[in-house]
Amino acid sequence: MLASLRFTLTRRPPLRPLNTKARHSLQVRTMALATGPNAKPPLIPFSSRLETGRALALDVWSIYNAANLPADCINLGQGYMNFPPPQWVRDAATEALNNVASNHYSHPKGRIRLREAIREYYSPQFPHLGRPLDVENEILVSSGANEGQYACWTAFLEPGDEVILFEPFFDQYLPSITFNAGVPVYVPLHPPSVSETEPTSDDWKLDFDELERAVTPKTKMIVVNTPHNPVGKVFTREELEKIAEVAKKHNLLVMADEVYETLTYDGKEHVRIANLPGMWERTVTVGSAGKMFAATGWRVGWLIGPPDIIRPTLAATTRIVFCTNSPLQEAAAAGLERAAEFQFFDKTVKEYAERRDILVNAFKKLGLQYSLPEGGYFVLLDISKVKVPEDYPYPDTLKGRGKDFRAAWFIAQEIGVSTIPVSEFYCEGHQGIGERFIRFAFCKDYDLLRRAAERLQKLKEYL
């Protein structure tokens, strides 16, 4: 099947600067599309970088916003939890707020307590080093994983440098790359066939010939997201070894987005590409306290890598945010320090697997194909068999969008469960791949998921 599927590799050409008059005219049209035909033109033209990376486009999060959906709609679209961080982490946050020193500026590298906690937690996970991580030169705390990635792109991208993204991709990558004058190049993961029985996220395959063809003299970096959002794929050692060979052959930097690292199921091994031979020197590993401790709004993340990557990224992050919020760094440190004491990550995996199964069993009852995720907290449902009414009163914001956008809207309005269309995570040339799927988040409490599963059975009327 895979051999018969070939997708055109897509790269966005570097933008050519417009003159002020032409740019102002474009901005008037752009704002009208985003806010309506009666929108006033901007008095002062804004930067052309905002016209890249879909930054001004009406994004999927705005379309499937609570304000646009029924009041009682169950939100399984966005990946935030509806339960709090563990008590001992919240207690540490309270303690930090009551401490004068932890309410003031931190070092741009991150608070020393958190960097030391990262060192103690992660050093055994990088055994090839044969030593502890260096808290001064190999660890950088960031304002969420997103800001850490942005700072790394700021530090390393020259205008026109290409960054390879595996589709579907986390949508924040795109503007972060283009804002820094980079050019995204898209290599799709090939989904399982419609006829395949009980596929898993592992059945989404990367064509390594396509990956090799995507590399040009301008290629600077590859982004590897494992466990993967939104597919839930946990890249195997063999797959990562092949990616590593491409990176070494062409002298590429690898950004290993591993924010879902503590959420792998069914005994699946999370392999760190930085541990493979010759890869530590060219890999930055991205982590997130928000994903680990159900504290996504805290915006505390970190980067781990060699000094040659961390040092210039530190220079960038110092000028972007200067430092990350201090009290919640202390709380994140407490989370890492005491996780083993509470067997927290083992319990979390068990609970998330149970949550996953609530949704999966609902899909089984419907007889719909899904990709069983082996990591993360999203599951993709194949909507090929769902007969979405063409004459339904869809909003104008869905014009030109794929079937998955219409299906997600219809399901939210008529079934009462909000999801996210997966074609949003593809470039325009590959959106047809994603139209088969909608994404459900299962990082919710059991009761909410059970109610959603019950509602979803109404879909039988439309199969």
Question: Order of helices and strands, N to C?
Answer: EHHEHHEHEHEEHEHEEHEHHHEEHEEHEH
Q: Please give the CATH architecture of the largest domain.
A: 3-Layer(aba) Sandwich
Average pLDDT value?
92
In the CATH hierarchy, what is the class of the largest domain? Alpha Beta
Counted up, domains total 2
CATH superfamily of the largest domain: Type I PLP-dependent aspartate aminotransferase-like (Major domain)
What level of helicity do the residues show? 25-40%
- What is the tally of beta strands? 15
CATH fold annotation of the largest domain: Aspartate Aminotransferase, domain 2
Could you name the ranges where pLDDT drops below 50 across 5 or more consecutive residues? 1-6
Q: How would you sum up the global shape?
A: globular
The main β sheet shows up as: 9 strands, mixed
Integer-rounded radius of gyration: 22 Å
Percentage beta strand: 5-15%
Query: N- to C-terminal separation?
Result: 26 Å
Supply the number of helical segments: 15
Which structural class matches the secondary elements? alpha/beta
GO molecular function, one term: pyridoxal phosphate binding
Family: Belongs to the class-I pyridoxal-phosphate-dependent aminotransferase family.
Protein name: Aminotransferase class I/classII large domain-containing protein
Cofactor: pyridoxal 5'-phosphate
